[in-house]
Amino acid sequence: QVQLVESGGGLVQAGGSLRLSCAASGRSFSTYAMGWFRHPPGKDREFVAGILWSNSDTYYSDSVKGRFTISRDNAKNTMYLQMNSLKPEDTAVYYCAASSRRYIATNPHQYDYWGQGTQVTVSS
Fold first, then answer.
1. Are 53 and 33 in contact (CB under 8 A)?
2. How would you class 65 by CB atoms within 10 Å of its CB: exposed for 0-12, middle for 13-18, buried for 19 or more?
3. Burial annotation 35-57 (CB, 10 A radius, 16+ → b, else e)
4. Eight-state DSSP code of residue 80
5. CA 121 – CA 19 distance, rounded (Å)
6. Which residues contact 47 (CB under 8 A, 6 or more apart)?
7. Phi first, then psi: what are they for 81, rounded to 5°?
């Protein structure tokens, strides 16, 4: 059984920063791909960023590239999403997810485990 717990969401003004954390437990993630998704109000869930746990290869959606940074800490079994230069359109519930596939998938249906989500609200 895999557990993913997000934290770090909140309310921030446009241009500000937040760092989300995703604490993982339950099994080894050495062969997993991990990802961040978000669900904006009134829209579908969308891919934000992904990382391979084994070698830290990363991939970003065009909408966050250059502003967000995904990383992981092996010792803490924790993944992070540093979000800078936040915009009102970044407002969403953010989820972390884990996939047993050995590549970074952008389709949420290719992820096996999900956290409960954390709200990020960016005011203008």
1. yes
2. exposed
3. bbbbeeeeeebebbbbbbbeeee
4. E
5. 13
6. 35, 36, 37, 61, 106, 107, 108
7. -135, 105
What integer best gives the mean pLDDT of the chain? 94
Alpha-carbon torsion (113, 25, 60, 9), positive or negative: positive
Task: Encode pLDDT of 51-89 as tens digits.
Answer: 998 888 999 999 999 999 999 998 898 999 999 999 999
The H or E element containing residue 94 is strand 92-99
Within 13 Å and on the Cβ side, how many CA atoms surround 15? 1
- The whole-angstrom separation of Cα 17 and Cα 4 is 22
Question: How high is the pLDDT of residue 75?
Answer: 86
- What distance in Å separates the CA atoms of residue 17 and residue 84, rounded to the nearest whole number? 4
Of 97, 107, 105, the residue nearest 46 (C-alpha) = 107
